[in-house]
Specification:
Elements: E1 4-6, E2 9-11, E3 15-17, H1 25-35, E4 39-43, H2 58-61, E5 68-72, H3 79-92, E6 98-101, H4 114-126, E7 130-135, H5 139-148, E8 152-155, H6 169-178, E9 184-186, H7 192-201, E10 205-208, H8 210-213, H9 218-238
Parallel strand pairs: 3-4, 3-10, 4-5, 6-7, 7-8, 9-10
Antiparallel strand pairs: 1-2
Helix pairs in contact: 1-9, 3-4, 5-6, 7-9
Length: 260
């Protein structure tokens, strides 16, 4: 699969995965391995990466020398909370600066609060963080985050954990046409076909957690997602045939037929 670049580093896998909602760290490791992901998100407010020294650490299952850890601000509802959380992550991870910013609007929908997200992004970029930002699928906002200096823009496919898939491919297409930084679909993916569609649209990657962790067999679903992302990317590069509404086109040659 063709490589892509994020914040100056190249990666082979375009599937990014989360680490929440698994039975234990052993299952987390097995699913991540099966996914082939190289970038792994960590919810700092919910997962121990050293801030609780007497508890098992995710870093034992997913060592930083093997994976690019992506601290995120899941569970934060204000810009101040998000900034403090990522400052802690940088301290715990020895100066790590690549982060995923999400500031939520309410606990029911988990829809992004874009006003607070903009404020947090401005502060974090000023402090030297490389910010990947979770946001709505608003093309104007996406362009603004790019202009601010975010290294990737991550519009939702649908609500976090909903499994509803891509509800508005048209907005995603506008964002993809206008932005130069990587666009990564984040939130709402439910199954392999959703991931393939995101890649067929031209997204640089797909980030997911619940779709894998909440599956009956998370490891098998992780494998399915891995294949879906590769297939979707290949389809995008190949270029699909044009759609012909209400017009059929035979797949076999029409000349030289017997009896013609």
């Amino acid at each position: 699969m063709d490589q892509w670049t994020l914040a100056g580093k190249s990666y082979d896998s375009r599937l990014l995965v989360g680490t929440g909602k698994y039975r234990d760290f052993e299952q987390t490791r097995a699913a991540v391995d099966a996914s082939g992901a190289q970038i792994v998100t960590v919810a700092i407010r919910r997962t121990n990466i050293g801030q609780n020294p007497d508890e098992p650490s995710l870093l034992d299952a997913l060592p930083p020398e093997r994976y690019t850890l992506l601290p995120n601000t899941a569970g934060c509802y204000t810009a101040d909370e998000a900034v403090r959380t990522l400052r802690l992550a940088r301290e715990l991870l020895d100066g790590h600066d690549l982060v995923k910013l999400e500031v939520l609007g309410d606990p029911r929908t988990l829809y992004p609060n874009v006003t607070e997200t903009l404020a947090a992004a401005q502060t974090l970029i000023h402090e030297g963080f490389k910010v990947m930002v979770y946001t709505s699928d608003d093309p104007i906002l996406a362009r603004r985050f790019e202009d601010m200096g975010c290294v990737a823009v991550m519009p939702l496919a649908s609500l976090i954990g909903s499994g509803m898939g891509i509800l508005n491919p048209w907005n995603l297409q506008i964002i993809l046409q206008e932005l130069k930084v990587p666009v990564i679909v984040d939130a709402g993916v439910g199954t392999a076909s959703d991931a393939a569609i995101a890649m067929e649209l031209g997204c640089a990657g797909v980030l997911m957690n619940t779709a894998i962790a909440a599956a009956h067999d998370p490891v098998l679903m992780a494998q399915a997602m891995r294949h879906a992302v590769v297939a979707g990317r290949q389809a995008f590069l190949a270029g699909r045939m044009p759609k012909k509404t209400y017009t059929a086109s035979p797949s076999s040659p029409t000349s030289g037929l017997i009896g013609s």
